[in-house]
Design brief:
The protein has two domains: 67 residues, no CATH class; 137 residues, no CATH class. It is built from nine helices and no strands. The longest helix has 30 residues.
Length: 218
């Protein structure tokens, strides 16, 4: 077949198509240009898929059933998706409550000496509790396979980054002595690094997971 820019574009487009869709292109000549049919035939031949006669109809049915079976295997809240849901609804909130309690116990002894520290602690507590509530909401949405749950979970992950950015600035507004800034900077850097890794891993998972795609019909 003569190679032209148009044919090359068709080839690049069809290479990612499922086998059953390519078979439908081949057997619906009246609806597709000859170049499209030929490109589909070439790709199917490379996949060792028959394209002529009744056999092709059988292959279409078999491939479609295999595709449906694969989707059924990946459907449901399990595997890494289940771990993410547990993290959002149980582990994350418990860690937040424990961290807030420890932080308050450590900071409260300095409230009289540094009045701004009390205000910063209150603001951070409110932000943390709000983020915790959002985490539980996003997790229960995923767990119950609620429409739009994946989009909400992605928004939560972005909010995690937003919270970390704000939390990184708050300690420097508490009026603490400059000697404390170096220690705070090191801890803030660690927290930011962990947050970026957490968000990057789970955001990528939500975008790429076959289970997420099959379960939430993305």
């Amino acid at each position: 077949m003569t190679t032209t820019p148009e044919v090359d574009a068709l080839r690049r487009r069809y290479e990612g198509w499922p086998t059953e869709d390519l078979l439908r292109v081949v057997h619906a000549v009246g609806d597709f240009r000859p170049e499209a049919v030929q490109v589909a035939r070439e790709i199917l031949a490379a996949r060792n898929v028959p394209v002529d006669g009744a056999t092709a109809e059988v292959v279409i049915a078999e491939v479609a059933e295999e595709s449906a079976a694969a989707k059924r295997r990946h459907q449901g809240v399990g595997g890494w998706l289940l771990l993410f849901c547990v993290g959002l609804t149980v582990i994350g909130p418990l860690v937040t409550l424990g961290s807030l309690t420890m932080s308050y116990n450590e900071s409260s002894q300095y409230f009289d000496q540094f009045p701004g520290l009390l205000l910063i602690t209150v603001i951070d507590t409110l932000l943390s509790l709000g983020l915790m509530a959002f985490s539980i909401y996003a997790g229960t949405g995923l767990w119950s396979i609620r429409p739009g749950a994946v989009h909400i979970a992605k928004r939560f992950l972005l909010c995690v980054l937003g919270y970390c950015a704000v939390a990184a600035l708050l300690p420097f507004m508490a009026g603490l002595p400059s000697e404390a800034h170096e220690a705070m900077t090191a801890q803030i850097a660690k927290n930011m690094f962990r947050a970026v890794i957490y968000v990057a891993v789970w955001y990528s998972y939500l975008n790429r997971s076959k289970r997420v795609s099959a379960t939430y019909h993305l």
